[in-house]
Design goal:
CATH architecture: 3-Layer(aba) Sandwich
Number of strands: 5
Structural class: alpha/beta
Mean pLDDT: 92
Largest sheet: 5 strands, mixed
Distance between the termini: 29 Å
CATH class: Alpha Beta
Number of helices: 5
Strand content: 25-35%
Helix content: 40-55%
Number of domains: 1
Low-confidence stretches: none
Order of helices and strands: HEHEHHEHEE
CATH superfamily: Vaccinia Virus protein VP39
């Protein structure tokens, strides 16, 4: 995936990294992106990573990240999961492949609710936080320092 990103995106100030985010030393930045990364980090390290991201941003800098989230209500979570599984099958994945992917994420994926993500961002220091897009239980948040 990182090779694909590098192939189709370039720029003097654009850099793609494949590193351990829990030990990564962020440089001072105006903008940091994270796509479906934090959800695989235990909650204690997630807090530390968010604080490191916040500290590395210039004043007015932005953190944009996308994560799978948990619904507040189990019935909604179930419906979102069913819709998403149906969509995967419509994209050519077999029911077996969808089930195997779901099983492979158990115990590895640690999503939060949207409210919990917002609280973690505020604890890290972010004040201006907004959901900028959401599809089912996938959400993108913009947090400004």
């Amino acid at each position: 995936m990182i090779n694909y990103a590098r192939k189709f995106n370039s720029g003097k100030y654009l850099k793609f990294e494949k590193k351990d985010i829990t030990t990564f030393k962020f440089k001072k930045s105006d903008l940091i992106f994270s796509f479906y990364t934090l959800q695989f980090i235990d909650h204690e390290n997630r807090k530390k990573v968010l604080k490191k991201v916040y500290n590395s941003l210039h004043s007015g800098g932005a953190f944009i990240f996308s994560e799978k989230i948990l619904s507040k209500y189990s019935k909604n979570q179930s419906i979102n999961n069913d819709i998403y599984s149906t969509w995967k099958v419509s994209q050519g994945f077999s029911n077996t492949e969808v089930a195997q992917k779901t099983k492979s994420l158990r115990g590895v994926l640690n999503p939060n609710t949207s409210d919990t993500n917002m609280k973690l961002l505020r604890k890290a220091g972010f004040k201006n936080i907004e959901v900028i897009t959401q599809y089912l239980n996938f959400q993108t948040i913009l947090a400004i320092k």
